[in-house]
Amino acid sequence: MRLIFLGPPGAGKGTQSQHICADFGIRQLSSGDLLRANMRDQTPLGLEVTKFMNNGELVPDSLIIDLIKDELSKPQYKKGFLLDGFPRTIPQAAALDSMLIKMNQKLDCVLVLEVPHELIISRLSLRRTDRKTGKSFHLIFNPPPADGDFDLYQREDDKEETIRNRLEIYESLTKPLIKYYSSMGLVHKINGVGMLEDVYDRISTVLDRMTKSNIY
Fold it and tell me: Which of 40, 74, 78, 155 is catalytic?
């Protein structure tokens, strides 16, 4: 099974991705993690990435595709993958399509986790981090113990203005992608509101149906 997982920041994709990969025997591939790992290990592609980033330039799509292709050729992805953070644009999506054709593979599903922006802002803007331990709390859902000695602060990326900015960027980049993959009949929209277990039930229902229908 080969999936793309789309969803706004703060929607809970990270947790859901772990459950999907564990239950369906596939590997998660985060483009951000992949870039950092190649830069850290100073691979030939990682050195190229570092060169662009040190010059303050965007990493070219062709280089990111090469990184993805190199990673997906590894045996641990034989049973399938879940792509997170890639593709972000239509040109990247088209390049991914071409790459998979050459690898004699195809995408099976594009999951879109939908959560209202105001709910995401409420979730993220109430997070606080302890300066001493780095541990995160939520003022409503996971408040710090009353008897604890904490030095809490609000991270820059948890401030409402920053969150709104990230959501606007997500919307502008993702809407065209949803339309692109919808035209191929690959998109499955998932209601991301509710308990984590309930949201995962909705996701697994879609993926179980695909599995039982043998459509991938």
Answer: 155
Please give the pLDDT value at position 174.
87
CA dist., res. 97 & res. 161, Å (int): 35
Is residue 89 classed as helix, strand or coil in its secondary structure? Answer: coil
Please identify which of the residues 88, 164, 189, 202 carries the catalytic annotation: 88
Domains and CATH numbers, the chain: 2-213 (3.40.50.300)
**Which strands form 127-130's sheet, in the order they lie side by side?**
136-138, 127-130, 152-153
Answer whether residue 216 shows pLDDT above 70.
Answer: no
Active-site residue 155, yes or no?
Answer: yes
For the question of whether the overall pTM of this predicted structure is more than 0.85, the answer is no
Catalytic-residue membership of 123 = no
Q: Token match 């859902």: residue?
A: 141
